[in-house]
């Protein structure tokens, strides 16, 4: 039996988190029914959704629980990386093979998250969702930030990375934790990519679609100055402490 969970780090997402969980459960049920009998026997029929309420201080956790998710709670806000680590460690304790991280704001179509679970890539690979930001209507600052990050991490990772900031990705649980990523904030995602790349571990880059709501409806906790600066510091620290082992495979 193959085991995977949808991991949803959530901070003050009370208005969207239940819809995200409901969408994942419905999309998984539909996909499972369409599997061949031989494939269906490898997976549980019900989606396992784990929400890490990162000190929201509102109804985020309660609404996720009511929608059918398992909820872990941080008493105080610790950052997206800390929430992802909490979820990965929970998955490790239960022997899960992988987790697919999904943002709590509804930006990631549930069908795309399900597709990453079922993607026939090595179970030991880090699978990155790759967006077409222009096609999907991403704001210009987002596109610029992602392009800069891609060039920056590609240089230090010694491979071409096409989307280093997408939160929709599949983590192999044991391998990711063995690499000991530690950044508690948004830089966690960049750090994981670099640790895989510089250790020569497989990275699969899979095109996906995303949903960008109208500007007046967008909710983000990403600080346009502070968080990029923290990412740069974490990247440089990782480069200084993680030597290149061999040429990465993509």
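Sequence proposed for the structure above (250 residues):
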């Amino acid at each position: 039996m193959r085991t995977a969970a949808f991991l949803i780090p959530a901070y003050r997402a009370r208005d969207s988190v239940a819809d995200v969980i409901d969408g994942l459960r419905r999309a998984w049920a539909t996909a499972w029914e369409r599997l061949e009998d031989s494939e269906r026997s490898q997976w549980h029929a019900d989606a396992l959704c784990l929400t890490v309420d990162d000190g929201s201080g509102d109804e985020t956790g309660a609404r996720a629980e009511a929608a059918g998710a398992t909820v872990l709670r941080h008493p105080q806000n610790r950052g997206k990386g800390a929430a992802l680590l909490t979820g990965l460690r929970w998955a490790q304790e239960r022997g899960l093979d992988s987790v697919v991280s999904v943002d709590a704001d509804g930006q990631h179509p549930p069908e795309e998250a399900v597709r990453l679970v079922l993607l026939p890539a090595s179970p030991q690979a880090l699978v990155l969702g790759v967006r077409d930001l222009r096609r999907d209507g991403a704001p210009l600052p987002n596109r610029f930030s992602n392009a800069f990050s891609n060039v920056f991490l590609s240089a230090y990772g010694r491979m071409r990375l096409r989307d280093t900031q997408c939160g929709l990705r599949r983590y192999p649980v044991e391998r990711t934790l063995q690499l000991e990523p530690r950044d508690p904030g948004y830089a966690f995602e960049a750090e994981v990519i670099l640790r895989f790349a510089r250790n020569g571990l497989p990275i699969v880059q899979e095109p996906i679609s995303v949903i960008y709501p109208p500007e007046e409806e967008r909710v983000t906790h990403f600080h346009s100055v502070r968080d990029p600066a923290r990412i740069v510091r974490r990247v440089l620290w990782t480069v200084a402490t993680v030597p290149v082992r061999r040429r990465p495979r993509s």
